[in-house]
Amino acid sequence: MGLSDHTLKKLRMANLRLKLIIISLICLALYMGVTLLGFNHSYSSAMFLTIHTNIEFFCVFVALGTFTVTWYSYLNNCSFYSYFIGLGLLAVGFIDLFHFYSYEGMPHIFANACANHATQYHVIGRILMALTFLTSIFFYKKEICFVKRHCRFYLLMATMSLVIFVLVTVSFNSSLYPVMYVKDVGLTQAKVFIEYAIIALLVAAVLGYLRLYRQHMDTYLQLIISTLTISIFSELCFISYGDVYDTLNLLGHLFRFASYVLIYVAIFLNNVKKPYLQLVATRSALENANNALEEKVQERTRELQEANDRLVQAVTHDFLTGAINRLEFTNRFNQLKDMATEGTVHSVIALDFDSFKNINDTYGHGVGDECLKTFVQVTQEVIRPTDSVARFGGDEFMLLLPDTPREGARIVGEKIRNHLAKIANPPFTVSMGIAQWPNDGRKEKDLLAHADEALYVAKEKGKNQTV
Question: Cross-referenced InterPro entries, in alphabetical order (predicted)?
Answer without folding.
Answer: Diguanylate_Cyclase, GGDEF_dom, MASE3, Nucleotide_cyclase, Rev_trsase/Diguanyl_cyclase
